[in-house]
Amino acid sequence: MGKRIGVEVSIAAAEAAALADVDVIAAYPITPQTHIVEHLSELVADGHLDAEFIPVESEHSAMSCCIGSSAAGARTFTATSSQGYALMSEICYIASSMRLPIVMTVANRALSAPISIWNDHADMMMSRDTGWIQTVAENGQEVVDLIFHAFKVGEDHRVLLPVQVNLDGFILSHMIEPIHMPDKAEVDAYLPPYKPAMRLDPAHPVSMGPVGMPDIYTEAKMAQDQALRNSKAVIVEAWKEFGDKFGRYYKPVETYKTEDAETIIVSMGSISETAMTAADALRAKGKKVGVARIRLWRPFPEAELFEPVKGAKNLVVLDRAMNFSGGDTGILGGEVKSVLFDQNHHPSLRNFFVGLGGRDITVQNFEEMVEKASANGGKPVPYEIINVRD
Amino acid sequence: MAKETGIMSWKELELGNSITRPGNAGELKTGDWRSMRPVTDYEKCTKCGQCYIFCPDMVYKKNAEGYYEQNYYYCKGCGICAHECPVSCIAMVQEGD
To answer: Quick check: A97 and B15 CB within 8 A?
Structure first.
């Protein structure tokens, strides 16, 4: 039946990968890393996990190694963060194009400069267009659950794509939380052994990752885009099965008190817990505030997001990464705005940049943002960086 | 990417654009961008086979009489055969003329 324990979220993530019976972990163990790969290396070294742990010379090599092992038919896992992700990113595009179901956790942190190891979503936003399925966790339990879900979805023969599980750096990765860890039999009942659809096998030779001339590249990208778009149904189905087995149900967009809300905060990740506290505080003052949290970042849940927010007057959309001179919104702000644009009636939108490079976001910040959104009167206002000293 | 790629739909691509039939590069038409084509004067040809040996794209093939003939499906018009021919029996002719 598993058990509920107090555990650092990174350690729990490593234990989840081990429970998923990974065959290969390739990782570069230096800052910015987390205890995720450190603990996996311990599990392998101590004989608790029968897997290959390949310590490579860079994150670029880590993902290259993962591509090789996944292509050979091994269940493959890695973890990274910020600058490490940046170095790895070239190979991430290749992993999704080659349709290899690698699972990776990214402890989201700011990108330098100035040098920062603290939490924001710059690395996640950088990874937006790599073609990976991307989920975003709110708390430690969700990190663990999303890792099982990631293998389940990525390896499904209707999907066959790599999956990135995002968790806020430090705020989640280095926090000790109460987490229910399932036992191996429960995980096995949910996650069958990996059966590759195609693999490197001398008995059946294939060439993976060949050149694509101009007469085929467009078709290759069309096929890849369709695969990612079509994965949404499997993602939702795998969450339903997870809920039926483990009792925790997930969906692409989580809502909190949105039914009668006049102002809805649209957010991603652990900041949403503060947003819910702020919503309660504002409701105590008579303001109808709710929260819509995006759990599925790619494929983007357009309909699932519009449905709960369509009746609101104002949206407060939170971006946790810069979008330098990219029009009047941040990245999430722009995506939400594109969902609203085609609708006849939709809420007005205020977009705020918050929590950059580890800056705390307080309930008071939320109150300020909700106040500004309500005062907007539906007129378009460019994004604003909150809590910046003049 | 099995058959001539130019006519494939995105739905026909193998998973991850993999090549599942080894050696199918021979089906790829690579001789459609030359501007000059090699033409052999078989009156002068001595069947020495230098064109066959030097051709980087396996364009030449020996026929029943022992002469080497071009397969323009692969020929890019590089002119190496014409340059190497010891009796100068290969002329590079403008495409479209």
So the answer is: no
B23 touches chain A (CB under 8 A): no
Q: Which residues of A touch B1 (CB under 8 A)?
A: 210, 212, 216
Complex prediction ipTM: 0.87
Q: Omega into A32 within 30° of 0, i.e. cis? A: yes
Strand pairing partners for A298?
A: A134
- Kindly tell me the burial class for residue A235, based on how many C-beta atoms sit within 10 Å of its own C-beta (0-12, 13-18, 19 or more): buried
Hey, are the CB atoms on A97 and B11 less than 8 Å from each other?
Answer: no
CA angle A381, A384, A389 (to 5 degrees): 145
CB contact under 8 A, A219 and B6: no
Q: Does B5 touch chain A (CB under 8 A)?
A: yes
Predicted confidence (pLDDT) per residue in A130-188, tens digit:
999 999 999 999 999 999 999 999 999 999 999 999 999 999 999 999 999 999 999 99
> Could you say which architecture CATH assigns to the domain A3-246?
3-Layer(aba) Sandwich (3.40)
The DSSP string of A169-220 is TTTTTT-EEEEEEPPHHHHHHHSPPP--SS---TTS--B-S----HHHHHHH
CA dist., res. A327 & res. A325, Å (int): 6
User: Which residues of chain A neighbour B22 with C-beta distances below 8 Å?
Assistant: 205-207
Q: What domains can you pick out in chain B, each with its CATH number?
A: 1-28 (no CATH), 31-94 (3.30.70.20)
- What letter would DSSP give residue A118? S
Element of type H or E holding A134 = strand A133-136
| Cα B81 to Cα A260: distance, rounded to the nearest angstrom | 80
- The CATH classification number of A253-385 equals 3.40.50.920
> pTM here?
0.91
